[in-house]
Amino acid sequence: MSVFLVSFLLLIPILLLLRTRSKSSERVPPGSLGIPIIGQSLGLLRAMRANTAENWVEERIKKYGPVSKLSLFGKPTVLIYGQAANKFMFSSGGDTIVNQQTQSIKMILGDRSLLELSGVDHSRVRGALVSFLKPDSLKRYVEKMDVEVRRHLDIYWQGKQQVKVLPLMKKLTFNIICSLLFGIERGNKRSIPNLIQSIE
User: Fold this and answer.
1) I want to staple 184 with a disulfide (CB 3.0 to 4.6 A). Which of 24, 55, 136, 178 is the partner?
2) Which residues contact 32 (CB under 8 A, 6 or more apart)?
3) What value does the mean pLDDT take over residues 63-79?
4) Which residues contact residue 189 at a Cβ distance below 8 angstroms, ignoring those fewer than 6 apart?
């Protein structure tokens, strides 16, 4: 009796799993969620470590198409690929789809990062970034950054036996931000209060 009961209890989860896998819905994209909790996380991490993540994604697209389901880091995920997918993601008004990162990524990037924003907030921040990263703007920024880095190396690094890198990199970053973002040239006194005044 007990052998029959144990085998019956073991068969129930297997039958339920097979039944749920056999059900197909038109609203669910093709693909496999893989092993529970683990999913495809190990395969992706292995590909990222070998610097072949693009190949991993391409193989998945060849197998399931530009829209597929998978499980990453314990969460069911939808992979969408291509120009139409980008347009769908970034031009929808926030009602259709919402970006939601895993808790670990939220902790690293913050809950107000571009990856987390949606709708009007996402459009506003993305528009500001696009105008900032136009080729003409980048060309001007690179020239100014080059001048600032050369001046910094001449003053603080040239001919020195020993340098403290961290404080000097903070100073270089601060000077580049003053020059690029706020337009405070070297002749003016660069300080935090001056930056606050230029922002206001």
Assistant:
1) 178
2) 69, 70
3) 85
4) none
